[in-house]
Every structure is written in structure tokens, then in C-alpha cells.
User: Fold these one by one.
Assistant:
Number 1:
Amino acid sequence: MSTEKLTTEVMAIMGKNRRETAGFHYTVPSPELYPFQWLWDSCFHALILLKCGQIEQAHQEIYSALARPLENGLLPHINYWRQPPTGEPWGREHRGDVITEAWSIEGSSSITQPPIIANTVLRLYEAHPSQDFLEATYPVLCNHFEYLWQDRRFNGDSLLYIINPDESGEDNSPRFDQAVDLPAKHSANEHLDRRIELMRQNAACGFRANKCMSLHFGIADTPFNILFREGLESLAKLAQVMGDAATHESSLERAEQVEHDLRTFLKKDELFLSYDFVSKSHIEVKTWAIFMPLYGGLLNDAEAKSLVDNYLLNQELFYTPFSVPSTAKDEPAYDSNDGFWRGPVWFAPNWFIYHGLKRYGFNDVAEEIKQKSLLLLEHSGFREQYHPDTGEGQGAHDFTWGGLVLDMC
Ligand code: GLC
């Protein structure tokens, strides 16, 4: 597919999914299944809009994503904007109303998602240096990053701990099975039950993660921390533009500490593995997250080559006709048919892996991932996830993330 045709198709989805409430413009990931605003989705949307030459819309997407932080500075992962429907079943497990209530606050969720927001703001600023955009976003970013730093380190190290699987952006990834006390095979409803319980516990302790949430669930997740480190570096650059020397310096110092602890505490043998605070053990389940150190530049060349050769290109694990599966094929949890994050291919992981490969000069492998991503769009259109062997679309329709292919370059 030519870039022109792809851009036209992406703009059509973005236009279809664009909403306005009380003067705030945002894009819903999918009209039926996800009719609200999600934090990391909005970062993807802003970058997609940037690639489509829609800088105004990209700014608006970020303004609305930053419009409703919680009192403690946390940027919630869902902004409802409109009243969620009541009385009729909605949402993936038809329990949207139970989820909305479990956040125990009005209008948004009470947890966050991977911190790619500072990096997104920096990319938009670098592409179109607008002082107004920076001044409107910078203070909210600082508060969010400060919240994460103060509240989400609760193991005496410099790593951030997520307090619910949804904070990883990979709601039912098997990385979290042990922590939510579920076997490799279980139903989507059983999984949601456990996550709702965590939401209620979160509310019961007044959202003070470091005080009591850590008793129930606390994971130093590899992608989240790699993205936080990168976020701090972006924040440092933004601080420099803003003339904020104190934040510039503290962000760089923190980024160094996070990098140090990523290497010290999450690297086990050849892989970076997430760490479970409650069971005090590394999580051995292999998911696409093992490739995030490529994106974060945490490997030397030999380590990177071994990761690509032995895992990414290994047909027993992650190499499929429509790579990259979200979970390795040899895992007991692997479920390529509607398994959600337990096997199907998603565009965000493909996008992170693509950039990681480029960073290390694996240009041919990166190009193959891009071509397979394009094939998915041609084959099945803009769907939420895809079957790794057949490319068949699964989950939500008119899902926006396929637009990330425009940023594989
Ligand atoms: C699902 C995904 C999450 C995404 C949300 C909205 O919950 O797991 O990453 O943000 O849908 O698209």
C-alpha cells in the first residue's frame, strides 16, 4: 500500500473516531468498544495526527488527555468525558458500569498507563516549536512525573511499581497471572473480577499506592520503567526549553537512577524481566516485553543480536507469518484466538519493537515487521488485534492503532 493511500485510510479512521465534549477534542480508540479517551492511546493518536500533518488536532488530543489530572497529579488512563451508558451491558466483558463505579471517582479512572506522554509532547514540540503548547502542557507533565516518582517507588529502589495490570496497557497479559492469582488458562471474566477487586482496594486506600496498594499488587514492569526513563529524558529537554534548571537536573539524575536499577534489578541472565514486589520474584513468562530493552537501548550489540536471533526470529517463540505475537508461542498461557494480550499481534508492540530494531541497526528485520504490519491492515483492516498465523482481525473494529504504521520510518 502506498503511503498516500495509507494516510488517507488512517485519516478516515481518525476522523470517524474524533469527538468533542465541552470544547475538548479527542479521539476514541474504537467507536463501539472504547467510546472514551485513553491516555496512551491519545499519545499514539497525537503522533499519528502529526504524521498526517494535523498538528492542531494533535495538540488538541494532548490538551484533552491532560485536562483532568487527579489531585495528586496522576493522569488517569481513562477520561470518560461523556456519561457512560447505564442500564445496558457495555464494554468488552459487558461490565463497563461495574468498572466505572469501581474507580470511585467521577469522570475518570483512578489509575494510569505507561508514561509516554512527555516523549509525545517533546516530539510534537520538536516538529512544531510552539511556546503556547509547551506552557499549557509542561506543568501537568511535571506533576504527573513527580507523582510517579514519589508514590510509585515502594521497594527501596528507583523503579516504579504499577498497582493494576491495566496500568501496563496490557490488561490480561500473562505477565500478571501469578500476581492476580490465576492459572495460565482462565476466563476473561475471572481476570476482570481480580482487576476490579484491585480497583476497589485502590479506592479504599485513597489512591496512596505506596501506603497500602503494595500489599495487594506491585510490579516493577519492564516496559513501564523503560518508558519512564525515556520520559524523564524528554522532560529534562522540555525543562531546558522552559528555563527550569531544577527540573532539568533532577529529571536527568532520576533517569540515570532508573537506568541503573533496570540493569541491576530487572536483568536476569540474558533477559530483562518484570519484578513482582509481593512474591519477591522475577516474572519468567515470556511476552513481547522482553524486546523493550532494544527500544530503551539497554543492551550491548552482542546481547541485542542474541535477543533478535534467539527470540524474535525463533519460530518456536515469536516468529510467525504475522509477527509479533504478544506472548511467546511456547507459553502455557498462549492463546492466539481472542486471547487479547495472551497471543494476538497488536500495533503498539510492533511499533516499539520496530524502533528498537532500528536503534540497533537491524534494518531488515525492522522492515519485515513494518511490511507484516501493512499486510495486516490490507488483509483485515483497522482492528484491535490480529491472529499471529492467519492475520485475521480480532476484538474492536475501526481501532486507531493501525495508524502507527505511518510512524514506522
Ligand atoms: C484495552 C488495551 C489498552 C488500551 C484500551 C483502549 O484496554 O489493553 O492498552 O489503552 O484498550 O484502546
Note: The longest helix spans residues 245-266.
Number 2:
Amino acid sequence: MDDQEALSRAAEALFRAERCLVLTGAGISLESGIPTFRGPGGLWEGFRAEELATPEAFAANPARVWRWYRWRAAQYGDCAPNGGHEVIAKLEDRFPDFLLATQNVDGLHPRAGSRRLVELHGTITQMRCEICGALEPFPDPVAPDEDPIPRCDGCHGRMRPHILWFGEQYWPGVLERAMGAARDAEVVLVVGTSGQVWPPAMLALQAKRLGAFLIDVNPDATEISAAADVHLRGPSGELLPLLWERLLALG
Ligand code: NAD
Ligand code: ZN
């Protein structure tokens, strides 16, 4: 299948379907200037993400973990959604039944206009009280941090980023919503995920097993692209706008 045929087949599958699930990972935000964890630029002050984004790392050195998240929040704040995020936001209006389940915490999907979404791993735009669970907006990342560890307004508990860390359980309802969409979907569009993070990869493969048409957008070959009906091989910021044009041409 050449690239043109792949685009046409993907557009036709989206055109025919009424129930669509979109799954995105860090790759969709790369063209916005946000590095993936596994690619180049994935280190911070010599640490790997797996050494910072854990409850153990936070317990051992909360100030360091907060510094890392403030740095990431400042970096993300300087970035804007790209053409890939924009196409996914427009896509949701074409389907009576639609869900975007993202692994990303950068907030670029909501900034691009996505509304029917579930942020599987939380968001860097919020923080949460460790004691009472209250959610508050993430502090201004470039304000001088008098207190490196913010406190809850209500109970004075320690706040943490509202992000699912390695080794933590998914929040109640979050995964169930994505699993329901995977069960019902006629078409699943996966963008920019290595497939090494389960369960998001499992959602795509399970939907495929249940008969969904699986489209993968990724410059690299992955376990998901190997199982896909169509692999659009290249950067999503370029390929998703081309896919959108094909879709519009169909009606
Ligand atoms: P990953 O880093 O494991 O994989 C990224 C994938 O994107 C790779 O397969 C790569 O080939 C692909 N890719 C690279 N450039 C691309 C492009 N231009 N267009 C499309 N795809 C491209 O990321 P992951 O699978 O999402 O898992 C890492 C975990 O880290 C996730 O849980 C995620 O939440 C988190 N994370 C989030 C962000 C963010 O919020 N932007 C950034 C880094 C990591
Ligand atoms: Zn509290």
C-alpha cells in the first residue's frame, strides 16, 4: 500500500464510521516542541522521567519533583497546539459517538478545542491535595517559588501535580470510559504512541480484535502499527491535516 492509498483508506474508514476513538501519546506534541520521554531531550538534570514521576521520588524529595514539574509546565506553556491537535479537535464534531483518550498531560488537546476527552494520565494544568484530594490550578510556573511545595487552601495538606505516576492505579472511571469507547468503536485512530505504555496500547489492540478499523500515525513501526489496518508513516502534524483534507473531499 503506498502513502496515497493509505491516506484514502484511512479517510474512507473515518467517513463511514459513527463511533470513533482517538488515542494519543507524546508523539503528537513533538512538533509543538515537547520532547517525548524516550526520545532525545528526555532527561532533566540527569534524571530520567521514571526517576522523577513516581510516588517514591516525591516522598524522598518533593521539592525536586515540584521543580521538574514547574520546568515542564513552563515549557508546555510556551508551546502551542499543532495541526495534528487541531484536526483531532475538528474530528469530534463529525461523530455522534466520539472519545479522545490521551496519555499526554500537556493540556494541548483542550487548548486546541477538544472537549470529548479523557486525560488518562492527568494534566499539568492542575494540582491535587494529597490529603483531601482537592483540585486546584497549577501554580504559575515562572513565579518565584517562595514555597517550593504548595499547600492546600482547605486543609493545608501537601499538594502534588495532578498526574498519574509510574506505579499508581488509574483513577476510578477513567480507564472504564476509554474501555467502553474501545469496545464500541468502529474506527480507532492512534497517534504518536510507542505502545510501550499499557493499558492505552491494549485499548487499541482490543478494539481491533473486536472488529474496529485501526489506523496508526507514527514515523516509526510499533506493535500498534504492526496490527493496524493502515499505518500512516510520518509526523502527525503533517499527516493529520492531509487526512482531514481527504475526509472533507468525501463529504
Ligand atoms: P513515547 O515517548 O513512548 O512514544 C512517543 C511515540 O511518538 C514514539 O513511538 C515515536 O515514534 C512517536 N513520534 C515521534 N515523533 C512523532 C511525530 N512527529 N508524530 C507522531 N508520532 C511521533 O510516548 P508515549 O507512548 O506517549 O508514552 C510516554 C508516557 O509519557 C506517556 O504516559 C505520556 O503520558 C508521558 N509523556 C507525556 C508528554 C506530554 O504530555 N506531551 C511528554 C512526554 C511523556
Ligand atoms: Zn486538602
Note: The beta strands are 19-24, 97-102, 117-119, 122-129, 135-137, 159-163, 187-191, 213-217, 230-232.
